[in-house]
């Protein structure tokens, strides 16, 4: 959920996510696989394939098997308990892959926002020139609007090329993070339900109130922590948006609803998945706070923040909104 800011700004939605998630709640009996894949899978391929259709193909795909092998290798190399191995693997992936993309996203967004004043000035001059040309050529109002919009799009595209900041680049984080999240989630589901050789390790690889990672968290602690963390990320994002558009408010409310919906979903899947989702959201929230630091922003070349005390300002805004 770290990328909620980028999702709202770029208007990128993923409506099929909950369709995928709803399928993980039903374990499938494993079958014996007699064929070999070009990538050696870490889990038995029959359990996912038995579901049939696109979900079975996705669960038994090469990228998901690569994620399984990564998780198993991380556990074997570190020698950590499975619950801590999952948490460490999550933190390392998000730090090495998604954190740099999040910083890049902020750079692109800052460049696009810096161009708005220039675009506004160009639009004024272009509107005047089109009106003059329209009177000379006898254009109708509709023809003048078409000419204005066509030429404005061309000029704006030239500005994006000049500053190397096309808004689509800001959505790169989404196109990397979402497949990675889905792949690791399916990998953990396969390892928890469809690989008998690892079932015993994962059944004893939990901690505290979730000792068995192959069954759902009956206490609902992990699911509730996941939902609260996602809601906190959204609220922190909403505090920094002043004068949000109606569309942005609708998208934000949609993500709030999805965060609440994730609680019962996380309570119906193996604890290993709920643990991964919670760790991923928690690390993402930490990265969100890290990228607000003036020192970090100057180090990575991000635009300077408006305030030198971003954390104090954020806390004050949060208290002012919810406790006053």
Helix percentage = over 70%
Portion of residues in beta strands equals under 5%
Q: Nearest-angstrom radius of gyration?
A: 24 Å
Give the biggest beta sheet.
none
Helix count? Answer: 15
Give the CA-CA distance, first to last residue. 27 Å
- Write down the overall geometry: elongated
Flag low-confidence runs.
Answer: 1-51
**How many β-strands, per DSSP?**
0
Overall average pLDDT: 79
Summarize it.
Helix content is 71%, strand content 0%. The chain is built from 15 helices and no strands. It starts with a helix and ends with a helix.
Note down, in words, how this protein is organized.
This protein is mostly helical and 324 residues long. Helix content is 71%, strand content 0%. It has helices at 4-10, 17-23, 46-49, 53-59, 62-78, 82-114, 116-137, 141-163, 172-193, 196-203, 221-239, 246-266, 271-290, 294-300, 310-322. The longest helix is centred in the first third of the chain and has 33 residues, at 82-114. The chain is elongated. The two termini are 27 Å apart.
